[in-house]
Amino acid sequence: MWVSSCGEEHLHGQRCLPIIILDNISFYIFLDKFSKYAKLGTAIELHCPPERYNLTVWKVNFNNGQHCHLSFKRENNTIARNCSKDFIDWVSIPEEDSAVQIKSFQMSREGIYRCFIATAKGTLNHEYEVSLSVSPQVSLTHANGTAVCKAAAGKPAAGISWNPPGDSQNVTEILPNDTKTVISTYNMKNVNEDKLTCIISHPTGGKSLILTLS
């Protein structure tokens, strides 16, 4: 019995984890990690690596400490689960597709979703950190030579930039419901343009707010 190591030819941008080997047969665990955001009440699909598999296991660890699982074994075409079908189910039939669909995403469904598939190459693993996406409320005001651009109660935190670029500062506040407010202040005293634009970027969609200076 010995422990294998992953050569460069096995990596291809993935994290490769060695596991214990028996009878000089090499197996590896390939790990890919992703982050996904979903709007409240929308459906979201999660995919395993696109390989021929003998066994598929989805394990879900919610941020609230609860967990559940869903699996398919090709040898006898059996499905085992304690995840509710109303929450998550196969996109198609598991014999053909290992992908699953979260049917109506809620904040209580935030967490880590892991897919493990057993293949001839070893065990492949996709890991998703799935979070709720909330559009921020945006505003642009100015007073006493300072412009203030605000993206309130968004998740994740919005990105704020200015055109033209200038003397600005961003501050992020974390709210009790885990949303974030970003406030960006901009010193307008040396701006020679007719307009000042606050550019807000967010997974739910970007916005540009324009302040006319003349």
Automatic annotation (TrEMBL):
GO terms for biological process?
Answer: regulation of neuroinflammatory response
What taxonomic ancestry is recorded? Answer: Eukaryota, Metazoa, Chordata, Craniata, Vertebrata
Keywords associated with the record: Disulfide bond, Glycoprotein, Membrane, Receptor, Transmembrane, Transmembrane helix
Location in the cell reads:
Membrane
Family label: Belongs to the CD200R family.
InterPro entries, per the entry: CD200R, CD80_C2-set, Ig-like_dom, Ig-like_dom_sf, Ig-like_fold
Originating organism: Thamnophis sirtalis
Question: Per its record, how is this protein called by name?
Answer: Cell surface glycoprotein CD200 receptor 1-like
What's its membrane topology?
Single-pass membrane protein
A single GO molecular function, which one? signaling receptor activity
Q: What is its main location?
A: membrane
Give all residue intervals belonging to the Ig-like domain: 146-214
Q: Which GO terms describe its cellular component?
A: external side of plasma membrane
